[in-house]
Amino acid sequence: MEESQTDYLQIVISFTYKGWKITLDQGELDGQIIYSAWADNEQCSAVAVPYAPSRRVAIQRAKQWIDRRLTSTD
Amino acid sequence: MSYELPPLPYDYSALEPHVSKNTLEFHHDKHHAAYVRKYNDAVQGTDLDSKPIEEVIKAIADDSEQSGLFNNAAQAWNHTFYWHSMKPDAGGQPTGELAKKIEADFGSFEKFVDAFKSAGATQFGSGWAWLVLDGNTLKVTKTPDAVNPLTSGQTPLMTMDVWEHAYYLDYQNQRPSYIDAFLEVVNWDFAAQNLAAA
């Protein structure tokens, strides 16, 4: 068993999109900066984008995740 | 009662090549950790604060006003259960009473595998696939988002996370490849222990 080296979220930006709060978290993978995006509303907290190579891509894919979510629950 | 993030029950690289060190580091240290922290922040100061997390999950599963708390509680619990549903040098087939019961309730181990793979692959969007004891019968179920079988009176025996964050780094959008990989590390001893304790 290995001791957890818990790397809590390193939030770089947070904003609201269609009623969801999108939060970008910065991490490092093999020496490269990568981003995850969380999507939160009153009912759900989800890792909308697990890994993205840039803020732009993370934001774009997080918005797409929310759009799909809204479409599937309409 | 705060819920502590448990350490992984094995080394971060112990499940390679099926589940990578990078995936476990991100999945456990960031994603699971965030759910635990969000749960603790949300439950603190409420009437539920003194209860074990399993009781909180059951108590608020049908309360739409508590869906945010439920989401984080269930995700915190589900991930802990998921870590124990895998172990190094595992996979293969169960033995003993669990093997007999799978044979009896599914017809064969191969039919169980087909059902489990199908549940994981067809869970739309984010969720979980489970082997559960429902009454006295083993069943495969799938649940969306954070939902878990505790809320429907079933006893979870083992689970597979099919949220994208569980496999994207290793398998991109190839969820079926991840499901095959999971079955290479599935911890039948854990499932057998849960069956024996049910």
From TrEMBL, chain B:
Mn(2+) binds at residues 27, 79, 161, 165. InterPro entries: Mn/Fe_SOD, Mn/Fe_SOD_BS, Mn/Fe_SOD_C, Mn/Fe_SOD_N, Mn/Fe_SOD_N_sf, SOD_C_sf. It holds the Pfam family Sod_Fe_C. Residues 94-193 form the Manganese/iron superoxide dismutase C-terminal domain. It comes from the Bacteria. One of its GO terms (molecular function) is superoxide dismutase activity. Residues 2-87 form the Manganese/iron superoxide dismutase N-terminal domain. The keyword Iron applies. Keywords: Iron, Metal-binding, Oxidoreductase. GO terms for cellular component: cytoplasm. Its EC number is 1.15.1.1. It catalyses: 2 superoxide + 2 H(+) = H2O2 + O2. SUPFAM superfamilies: Fe,Mn superoxide dismutase (SOD), C-terminal domain (SSF54719), Fe,Mn superoxide dismutase (SOD), N-terminal domain (SSF46609). Belongs to the iron/manganese superoxide dismutase family. PANTHER family: SUPEROXIDE DISMUTASE (PTHR42769), SUPEROXIDE DISMUTASE [FE] 2, CHLOROPLASTIC (PTHR42769:SF3). Homodimer. Destroys radicals which are normally produced within the cells and which are toxic to biological systems. This is Superoxide dismutase. It comes from Vasconcelosia minhoensis LEGE 07310. The lineage of its organism: Bacteria, Bacillati, Cyanobacteriota, Cyanophyceae, Nodosilineales.
